[in-house]
TrEMBL record:
One Gene Ontology term of the molecular function aspect: structural molecule activity
The UniProt record lists the keyword Cell division: no
Keywords, sorted A to Z: Cell junction, Cell membrane, Membrane, Signal, Tight junction, Transmembrane, Transmembrane helix
UniProt family annotation: Belongs to the claudin family.
Record localization: Cell junction, Tight junction; Cell membrane
Lineage: Eukaryota, Metazoa, Chordata, Craniata, Vertebrata
Protein name per Swiss-Prot or TrEMBL: Claudin
Listed transmembrane segments: 80-100, 121-140, 162-185
Protein purpose: Claudins function as major constituents of the tight junction complexes that regulate the permeability of epithelia.
Gene name tied to this protein: Cldn16_1
Coiled coil start-end: none
Source organism of the structure: Rhinopomastus cyanomelas
Keyword Transmembrane helix attached: yes
GO cellular component, one term: bicellular tight junction
Length: 187
């Protein structure tokens, strides 16, 4: 039972870590939702902003300035939190791989393997919390910024909804958290 639970937690952690990595690397955190003519599809990300022409499918991306340039706080904080969460989740996957009952590493020392699994669960939990805070931080900051402009009766003409990268970051973080709970509480 314990080995099956470990393998299930590993599979969930692997999939969720891939989701977190994809969310960090992709560029569709916010999507233009007010294009009533459906001429273009605009996505904002952590690293660049892309516009896709819906008529011919041509995609143009503008890279943000240097990583050291001044950026909005939401981008800097989200980048830092997601990259740190990715690194912690990757470290947890390596620890978990060594601690699985089905691997031959330290087979004669089951207590050490159990400690590796629990340590991986704690590390994965920390990475998941960082990823979730980063994803929610970005979403809430954009929502608050938009709400403040609407409250001041400033017409923007453009309204952004949460893109698939934002949802992928949240789903990956929640999956890592569930895998962490399985590893720390259920073994």
């Amino acid at each position: 039972m314990s080995a099956a639970l470990q393998v299930a937690a590993f599979a969930l952690a692997l999939l969720s870590t891939l989701f977190l990595l994809l969310a960090t690397c992709t560029d569709c955190w916010m999507v233009n939702a007010d294009d009533s003519l459906e001429v273009s599809h605009k996505c904002r990300g952590l690293w660049r902003e892309c516009v896709t022409n819906m008529q011919d499918g041509v995609r143009t991306c503008d890279q943000y300035d240097s990583i050291l340039a001044d950026h909005p706080v939401k981008i800097v904080v989200t980048r830092a939190l997601l990259i740190t969460g990715d690194l912690l989740a990757g470290l947890a996957l390596m620890m978990l791989l060594l601690g699985l009952d089905c691997t031959t590493f330290l087979r004669e020392q089951p207590c050490v393997k159990l400690k590796l699994c629990r340590g991986a669960g704690g590390t994965l939990g920390a990475g998941s919390i960082l990823g979730l805070v980063g994803s929610v931080w970005y979403a809430v900051d954009v929502y608050v910024e938009r709400a403040m402009l609407v409250a001041r009766n400033v017409f923007l003409g453009v309204h952004y909804d949460f893109g698939w990268s934002c949802w992928l970051g949240m789903a990956g973080s929640m999956g890592c958290f569930v895998a962490s709970v399985l590893l720390t509480c259920c073994l």
